[in-house]
Amino acid sequence: MSADATPPEEPATEGTGDAARAGDDPRSATYYHLARAVLYREFLIFVRYPANAIGGIVVSLFFFGALFLGGQLLAGQALTDSIEGIVVGYFLWTLSVGAYSSVSNDIGSEVQWGTLERHITTPFGFAPVALLKGVAKVVRTFITSAVILAAMLLITGTRLSLAPVTVVAVAGLSIVSVLGLGFAAGGVTVLYKRIGNWLNLLQFGFVALISAPVFDLPWTRVLPLAHGSAMLQRAMVDGVRLWEFPLADLALLVAVALGYLFGGYLVFQYATARARRLGVLGDY
Amino acid sequence: MARSATSARGGPRERDETDAARGEESPADRSGPPALAIDGLTKRFGEGDDAVTAVDDVSLTVERGSVVGLLGPNGAGKTTLIKCALGIVIPDAGSVRVFGTDVRDGRRTAYADVDAMLEGARNDYWRLTVRENLRYFATISGVDPDSVAARHDRLLDRLDLADKADTPVRDLSRGMKQKVSLASVLAGGAELVFLDEPTLGLDVESARTLRAELRRLAVEEGLTIVVSSHDMTTIEAVCDRVVMLSNGRIVADDGVEALLDAADRDAVRVASPDLDAETVAGLRESFEILDVDREARPPAVTVAAGGDRFYDVADALRAAGVTVSDVRTVQPDLEEVFLERTGTASDASLGGESP
Fold first, then answer.
1. Does residue A44 sit within a domain?
2. CB contact under 8 A, A4 and B99
3. What is the ipTM of this complex?
């Protein structure tokens, strides 16, 4: 409630003087309240509708099982030698797909439900809400991918270095760049509703990024995921800890993450601004 | 078009539920800058020959505490006007001020007191419960939800949703979902509320309840409401003032009563078994016959007879030897006013929701 709606000499509880309003003492919501509301909503949906998460885990494991068993039949020893790298790569891929599709699909849904506009016409705007949702999606994806990782280790009998701080920091920063791509894809969906489904195909391109030849082609390190993937391999396969990485590697990891997140967010902002000019925002 | 007395002004529509609430607005609500001030608003879509001017140089002021209806057929520009006022659509020209703050100047102040329920959208999260939705939307509107818990209880009570407070919205009926949408719009304490086709798709009973609730909320909570609808019943039942739009322009802007009074269409409907074709033809020579209902028992004619013309009609009937079984006044409704102002039929007359 703004100051001009409630005269200063009159306490907010009295509002328009209606007795029914007694008991109200509206206080402004801060970013803390906003964060709590957005994260609580994500939490509620996650625990109330576990079928989505479980379905994702089952599908991911099915694909991995097919990959592993099929690979053993075709490549035999060669696959067994590189199985650690495959497990790490697959783990990062499930994380990336989870973060990307949850953000882009989420924006698509909000457009369809008419809730995106309601965020735009609020004092906070959609920006902080979108970032908080991104955080929630990353946390959620880590939970499901951890289950997938554990199952993969059991199926293959592989051992990996699982230092939590190192793994979460490196993998987390790696997928922040993908989160940026998710925002960009969400923005494109706001403008061109039907393209959204096609953009989901991008997630198969993540395989190429995760296995990018960063040693032979150093410039690929600035692509999303590539540099982070190489670092995650070293951390999980060779047991390199976070503080043992060269500072330049860590700096590049952070720069790529923030660069794509910011870039993706700009695309999203541009797309919604254009949608507002064209009058197609929420015009589903 | 003939209207039976029951559907005429003052007849037993749901107006009787709402009229009592009307007119109780306190003058204190009308101080300060207007709730909404739109000036020279223009919005075009498309380019070149295909360009459509959805809103054409519209200026409009809505005082605090008033309930204004935007009436017009689909494509008249109602939704675009609302979306421009909200900042969801950026206008090509003109300005929008909400409680004195220009919408373009910055969201924080302009948006704190405004919310909207837009047509055809869910507007809330179906997987959350009713109360969770209220808390969520209060927060994003800039209000700490714990500080308005009592208000939320009251809203739920008033909208008959208290029993369903902890039910996920997806499990509710369509009418209830619509009410949750309204409640979520009011949850953050918005003082200016836009409702785009609030009764669209509701059954007769749900629409009636929602209209009555809207009127009550407007008065009791001191809200300023802008309702867009192509349904005359909603507008007549809920609004103090009507802005009629046609092709993006305002064609009428006045109080409901004033618009109805200005429509010079007062008529009487006379029923009598003596009204055969010959008698009606005789009446037609001296009077404007608006409608002949031969199927009615007894048959009836509706004759334009404002003011003293009624006596002439009575004399003519006596002269023709007609024994009158029933006579009623037929007053115009907003639909006829709209027809008169625009020369086009509204959607309601083309099979829209009926009262």
1. no
2. yes
3. 0.81
